[in-house]
Amino acid sequence: MTQAVFTNARIVTPDEVVHGTVEVAGGKISSLREDGRASGSVVDFGGDYLMPGLVELHTDTLERHFVPRPRVNWPGTAAVFAHDGQLAAAGITTVFDALSVGIVRQGDVRSRLLGAMTSALRTARDTGALRVSHFLHLRCELSCAELMELFAPFTGDPLVRLVSLMDHTPGQRQFVDLDRHRIYYQTTYGLDDAEFAAFLETKQRAHVTYSGRHRAELVGMLEGTGITLASHDDATAGHVEEAARDGVAIAEFPTTVEAARAARDRGLTILAGAPNLVLGGSHSGNVSALELASLGLLDVLSSDYVPASSLHGVFLLHRSEPFLSLPQAVALSTANPARAVGLADRGAIRPGARADLIRVREIEGVPVVLETWREGRRVM
User: Residue 139's closest CA among 285, 331, 281, 302?
Assistant: First the structure.
């Protein structure tokens, strides 16, 4: 039985944009045709875009909903539903909630709230009222002494589908430039010069003590589990070689062209941040996402810390030099991330795929999500 009919739409298929009609039945796309004839429960798009729902691999906004301000802890279930609604409004229909496992600095509340966040997420899922399909992406801080203890409760958890190997030790990767590291962390944590110097020494000592050991333990533990591994902030070809040896499939946020080229050579999926695109460059002074795209070194866009940035970034890539076709740009936030984590049932408008769909209109040059459907059910 037909569940819904979307007609008079500019449909973004994997290969082209066609004007036509999509029918949905049983939560899946049942047909796609290039005409305007329709009957039954019809949604007339009036020429708006019909696109696949976005697949988001790395967003840390759930943590921000739990701690909207320093020393403010928001009620758990309420935080999850607010986060979920924000994602649906941004056109994201599948999300890998990126949660920090391991602290960057003593007093960091994210690991302390890790259990509360995952418990609240499960409670919200059990209600059946979440708009978006949620999985877990565990961001493992290798230099944290307590990392393996914090990771232990997630062993065998079916929600965990992605694990990233992270190391924010100053002087390498994201923070090769120590002056930028100082500005970021002194501002974030309100440290004076003496406190920052002590923080710097502690982090560098912890890197030597724990990072290599924890990396080996995690890689060994996750081998054969089907969980996708990601590297993070690779800056050199050596970083990428190490990642490839460890079975990493995704290079998240390479900081240099050198690292991105090495990732391409080793067959890793290259992920960059959409805020980098929208803002015209990296806030950390690293390589620009637009430059990576221009060199053919970009496979996946992630909204990172601004959910609405993914769709905005897609259209910027379509409008910028070198011009990507709209299907090519859309794939960066739909089919490509879905494929990278083994979700072959979504991310494209084709018969048989999940009917995770969004209605998009450009308003004054900005793409705006007007409606969102998950498995054919309107959720926004």
Answer: 302
Q: Return the higher-pLDDT residue of 231 and 204.
A: 231
Contact 60, 305 (CB under 8 A): yes
Is residue 168's pLDDT more than 90?
Answer: no
The pair phi, psi for residue 140, each rounded to 5°, is -95, 115
Q: Parallel, antiparallel, or unpaired: how do β-strands 269-273 and 300-302 relate?
A: parallel
Q: How far apart are CA 207 and CA 196, in angstroms?
A: 17
**In the β-sheet with 300-302, what is the strand arrangement from edge to edge?**
54-59, 92-101, 133-141, 160-166, 228-232, 250-252, 269-273, 300-302
Q: Is the peptide bond before 322 cis (omega within 30 degrees of 0)?
A: yes
Cα 277 to Cα 293: distance, rounded to the nearest angstrom? 10
- From 224, 286, 285, 295, select the one nearest 263 (Cα to Cα): 295
Alpha carbon distance 148, 151 (integer Å): 5
* Closest C-alpha among 38, 52, 44 to residue 8: 44
**Cα angle value 138/144/146 (rounded, 5°):** 85
Q: CA dihedral defined by 154, 226, 13, 352, rounded to 10 degrees?
A: -100
What per-residue confidence (pLDDT) applies to 285? 76
282 pLDDT band (50/70/90 cuts)? confident
Residue 161 in this model has a pLDDT that exceeds 90: yes
AA identity, residue 360? V
How far is CA 102 from its chain centroid? 19
Secondary structure class of 232 (helix, strand, coil): strand
Is residue 326 within 8 A of residue 51, CB to CB? The reply is no
Q: Which two tokens stand for residue 149?
A: 């203890």
SS (H, E, C) 163-211: EEEECCCCCCHHHCCHHHHHHHHHHHHCCCHHHHHHHHHHHHHHHHHHH
Residue 11 near residue 326 (C-beta atoms within 8 A): no
